[in-house]
């Protein structure tokens, strides 16, 4: 019995010590927090949609800001800016009030598929600063998915034209590759591919217009290995790769373009109308918009298949003398502007955007007359990829128009500091849409 009592006493003592240590840690953390709160000169930047840095004092050149996800700072006098990650921005969850002294920033690398309300000017105008795919954004994400100049010009995956020709016969490969598993897109890309298939052989992997099967090494998890060596080597076997974005926005360029360029397969591109501004050379990709339709494009591809030298003009970033492989000065300057020694990655752009906002806050005690416009997120109504007309076949077009009402209504709520009841908001939005009030 005494032994049992001694064990119980020892256990209680250890637990007591743990409790004391835990309380001391809380006091220490609280003192650190109080030390920060006593510094009235350090502005607070709140990530309303949790993203970026949390509970961190960050120094950006000559500026310092405190970044947090803690929404209790919404009413704090030190709050100077609220940042939003566009894919997670929801009408039902927005700040309770909008102060003219507090700027709003938008970080959004994705297409409108994630948040269609953001295609409309009235919604964009709610923000003061932006980091989007547009070159006109405060921190552009245009080249986010291009790893480096070195990968663009290297021949790590390159397969010669003659070898590709041989592979087409030995492995029974088509000349054109298509691999996509998102079959419901604002660009309606599958419609074009289906028509193109009538005029040229296309190996279509993935769930969309499927007519070919990946081998066992790739088929079970290809979506998770799109940047792995094995998958890139597979893409490199094809002379052409269909590179169609899920939405059409100016400067919205994803890995769909860069992947074939990196491995040495000629991209057949549909996406950003200004994508040629960022190509390595004048001839690096084929735009479907340069042809009257799929038949004309197929005829052009057939001619390139018969003429190796004409085909290889599209691969000069792999085949020219190394110093002349990239001739596009705009692309070169953009890549040279990247920080030396820091790998290109989304996190680096996020850090840069945080510092941009922090420095603006420090240098301008009052919010500048800075407003995000459609120029910084330019995604017009979806069009049929074949006819070029407004696409009434897909539900995305109606969603674009409905969210125009949503953007107008949201602006009314925010600028007048009206609390949002999401059910009431949605009812009003649909009433406005039905009455053509947008």
Overview of this protein structure:
It is a single chain. By secondary structure, the protein is an alpha/beta fold. The chain is 38% helix and 12% strand. It has helices at 2-37, 121-124, 149-153, 161-170, 189-196, 216-219, 229-235, 255-263, 294-306, 308-312, 316-319, 329-336, 346-363, 395-415, 422-434; strands at residues 44-47, 56-60, 63-68, 79-85, 103-108, 129-132, 176-179, 202-205, 240-244, 266-270, 286-287. The strands form two sheets. The chain has a six-stranded mixed beta sheet with strand order 2-3-1-4-5-6. Strands 8-7-9-10-11 form a five-stranded parallel beta sheet, with helices on both faces. The protein is globular, with a radius of gyration of 27 Å. The model is unreliable at 1-10 and 22-37 (pLDDT under 50).
Summarize the structure.
By secondary structure, this protein is α/β, with parallel strands linked by helices.
